[in-house]
Amino acid sequence: MAEDGSPTPAAEPPRPHLPAGATMADFQRYIHDLEAFHGWLDVDLVHNCFLMGEEVGELFKAVRKVNRLFDEPEKGPAGATAERVAHVGEELVDVLNYLLAIANRLDIDVEAAFRAKNTANLARTWD
């Protein structure tokens, strides 16, 4: 309580920071801190998967717009524009954020999983 008897405001969590040259572990820690900052740590695994699925749909739509697939002709010039490509980048980040949040909820080290899976893929052949 403050001296005047009013409740003391809750302290805001520190703003997350991602250092330059961050490792994948830093990215995972950043997403954890970002979720804590926004109060999203209680969003469960299944809901995070659903939310990531929505973001994948938005990514697909952004890619479609880069290639002007199924667009109406009056919506501007054909081809990839810097703005459309930048929007794909934003949607990729949204998907990555949810992917890392899902990994965090299962205590998966994404870098270790990435290396193990791609080492196995090097030994695979596809028909």
Q: Number of DSSP helices?
A: 4
Q: Proportion of β residues?
A: under 5%
Helix percent reads 55-70%
- Poorly predicted ranges (pLDDT <50, ≥5 residues)? none
Q: What is the total tally of β strands?
A: 0
Outline the biggest β-sheet: none
Please, could you describe this protein's structure?
The structure is a single chain. With 127 residues, the chain is mainly α. The chain has a domain at 45-109: Helix Hairpins (Orthogonal Bundle). It has helices spanning 24-38, 45-66, 82-105, 110-123.
Characteristics of this structure?
single chain; mainly alpha
Layout of helices and strands, plus pairs?
Blueprint (H helix, E strand, L loop, with lengths): L23 H15 L6 H22 L15 H24 L4 H14 L4
Write a brief caption for the model.
It is built from 4 helices and no strands. It has helices at residues 24-38, 45-66, 82-105, 110-123.
